[in-house]
Amino acid sequence: MEGISTSKAPFDNLLTVQKQAPGFTEDDLARVTEWLGRPGRKSRQRIAREFGWSEKEVLAALRELARRRLIELLTEKPLANEELIRQTASVFRRCYGQDLVKRLIASLVREGVLARLPAKRLLYRPDAPQPLLEALGLKLEVKPPTAAPEDLAERILAKIAELEEAPYVPVIVDKLRPAFPGRSKEEFDRAVVALADLGRVYLVPNRVFTDEEREMLIHDGEGNYYGSVGLRR
What we know:
Blueprint: H1 26-36, H2 44-51, H3 55-76, E1 79-80, H4 81-89, H5 98-111, E2 114-117, E3 121-124, H6 129-135, H7 150-163, E4 171-172, H8 173-176, H9 185-197, E5 201-205, H10 211-216, E6 218-219, E7 225-231
Antiparallel strand pairs: 1-3, 2-3, 4-7, 5-7, 6-7
């Protein structure tokens, strides 16, 4: 089946995040891949009959192959959520449909294997925030540290930790700002930018098209706007 790798070598660098489907060898997964590439109707029931497996075992094997396919695609470049789902499900001939792929993506995001980016894109490289910015073609500018109001700063840090879906997955401002209704936009923005200057958080730049977006996004006072905030670890 074109697009799915089953040999061990391409995945040597993924050992810390991948788990082999219970009871399956690489040969088993290669056989499933080859079988799916044959002409004719495909279903999990047919795979079960062909290999003498239970449908639960078939689903586990397909999940592992789908997991590999997702990581393969996202190692190359970020992809929009819907495009990623479509490209992954298409190689499984309805044996592992888009709903299952969508649930698998959500699971991998929770595990920290995949990272969500602005514009509903995903990326495999959750090791640090800098690769996420580089993938977007962006750079972090180093500025002299400035002080942040301690009480507000600590509350913002705690709220980001509470809202983040996984380590190194930034929190969108739309979710973060409503948690501080008693603070003005200017006060909130200054505190977040100061935390970034101190190296406590990183900011993900965002394009602005409307006045409504300017009102919600974080502004650094120098014409730059940010749509997401993540904790530095």
